[in-house]
DNA sequence: CGCATCTTTTCACTGACTGCAAACTTGTAT
DNA sequence: ATACAAGTTTGCAGTCAGTGAAAAGATGCG
């Protein structure tokens, strides 16, 4: 088949085969996301996704291991980037602060595209099963970060539970805060970062309880501690 | 069929129906865990589990929504019990301590049957997908505990992120510690509790890093610190 | 063109899971 | 005891997810 007259602007590094494959993959993913966003996860069959993407059902499984897999967007590169960012923090910074900083930064960057991010979070809220697909990846993510913390503290990631604990706790703060932030009518999107920082502050203070709001019964006014940096 | 001579010591609060249901449920769960621990998740079919539990395959699905569901370590009753236990802690105890206490207690009680429990933990390690199924349940569990913490602290679980954070962090400590404990050759099963307590202590101290062990670079092997713990 | 290689499709199959109606068990009022 | 209401288990028939194998169709290349 001769090349069509309109020369492709792209420097066609990849052969026709590779291009077609990518195209097919994208078509399937796009069809899956569109259909699921429309009707919900269990109201969409693989056959329908395949049909919408103009491929056979079997081809769907040539590209994705499961229906959920087609909806995932997990990036190995991001793990590496985040590890590098953690390594780049000042060496004398306390581990929790360092992890907090990179996780908050990551979130802030992601929130720049609220459309996609909101949709993704929403999807995880309404289909917690999707969490399962990512579980292995997140576990790996935590492990890698823990290794970096181990380097920074001079501990052994295998022997000492501390690095893993710091990372796990930090992740928990992020998850919990996002969930809480989603659940409340959030006045402004910007406050997520503030909430995160407040959460990390609270952990850094050993999770001592904050002063409750003024109760009608017996107000015992403990002084509010000034919320500084993490 | 007459009751056997050995009269049941239990004060039969529940009718025969309810008792049989629990019995069936337990039988299915036990069969599922045992078989999966033996052969791995994908080498066991629902039919086999049902057969091992002496019920029809259809009955399996009357009790559990999926194969994975039968392996979930938490049910509604347990959530209620744990919430009650948390409510029963001294009112002046710091929230983190209270949650730590009930979670450690729960774990210790479960570890009384190391066969099953070990298998269960192992399963989660080798089949991270199971987290997906648990995600919804655990989320609910966390939510209920957070509500109790909210009661205890006089905060609003909806408005203040603190209760959810405490619970989420505590859960993270437990998960992380179990995982770490599993990964290391554990000399004795009893040290899990100690590790958990150490982890919670560390959090209570704001996750400040512990002192690192002597560095291997210099050929001056300082005496090993008499670390009883970890 | 002709051949090796890769991709897609078809087919047949196992296993998860659901709805429905029949059969059976238990609680209870008579 | 008996009978009836209500709950539980089961078999059956069917849909959908997911896999292996081999035929059929593209593509790359000499």
From TrEMBL, chains A, B:
Transmembrane segments: none annotated. GO terms for molecular function: DNA-binding transcription factor activity; transcription cis-regulatory region binding. It comes from the Bacteria. Residues 22-82 form the HTH tetR-type domain. The keyword GTP-binding does not apply. PANTHER family: HTH-TYPE TRANSCRIPTIONAL REGULATOR RUTR (PTHR30055), MYCOFACTOCIN BIOSYNTHESIS TRANSCRIPTIONAL REGULATOR MFTR-RELATED (PTHR30055:SF238). This is TetR family transcriptional regulator. It comes from Pseudofrankia asymbiotica.
